[in-house]
């Protein structure tokens, strides 16, 4: 069975909306360090409140713009 990985699309959002990590931090009222860790896959979890704040800051109505599930193919196959 293929493994699944959850990705937080912070870098893509920054690019799509033309803003910096620091600006998103200010708009969403989330610590810059927290967003940096999420953007660089250093965190294994995200708080629902952070998803809500990011969606409000960027006027996002589709959670799939923030989070995606990726299938990791097994190299043995």
UniProtKB/TrEMBL annotation:
Annotated ranges, domain HTH cro/C1-type: 10-66
Matching CDD domains: HTH_XRE
InterPro entries linked: Cro/C1-type_HTH, Lambda_DNA-bd_dom_sf
A Pfam entry, by short name: HTH_26
Matches recorded under SUPFAM superfamilies: lambda repressor-like DNA-binding domains (SSF47413)
GO molecular-function terms, A-Z: DNA binding
Highest taxon above the source species: Bacteria
Protein name as it appears in the record: HTH cro/C1-type domain-containing protein
Annotated organism of origin: Mesobacillus boroniphilus JCM 21738
